[in-house]
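Homework help board

Subject: predicted structure for assignment chain

Our instructor gave us this sequence and asked us to write out the predicted structure in token form, then describe one feature. I got the tokens but I'm not sure how to describe them. Can anyone check?
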Amino acid sequence: MAYEAKNFESLLGTKGFSDQLLKNHFTLYQGYVTNTNKVADTLSAMAKEGKTGTPEYAELKRRFGWEFNGMRLHEYYFDNMTKGGKEIDKNTNLYKKIVADFGSYETWEKDFKATGAMRGIGWVILYYDGTEGRLFNTWINEHDVGHLSGAKPLMVMDVFEHAYMIDYGLKKADYIEAFFKAIDWTIDPKMDSWIE
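My token output:
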């Protein structure tokens, strides 16, 4: 079954994000969906043809993680946003866990923003490690490198240049501020229930 691109056009008109920037970003995301499907189909065909021992198969197998994570991380990123943003509910387990692990929400936010402002391209992800019950702000350099195994992504921010250059040029910090104003902190009660 093929993956289908989600429609994020409801984000058009979000303050701090031009429609041109968002449309370009949606197109890039759609490319990841298309390529995820192409690579999966090609790998399946090669396996049926007995070509699993070939260098081409090996390279496509490695490439699949890049395309799939590019698709999924963009979905998480866009899902984290809404026009006007929505503040975090201080009564949620997530908010309480942020305070417990970072000392305060403000300290967590400062650390998340500082992680995003680091030189380089990639992603910033607030991960929850359910095994130890800990939160981490993590830098992901490439789509498929640096993820915390078994941890659940709770907040995802894209810090590749395509996420901000059209609107902000090299002013990544201004983009990060705009992103924070667009965060949708609506927390699914099911998700909140597994945070200790």
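Reply (TA_rk): Your tokens look well-formed. For the description, you could write something like this. The radius of gyration is 18 Å. That's the kind of observation they're looking for.
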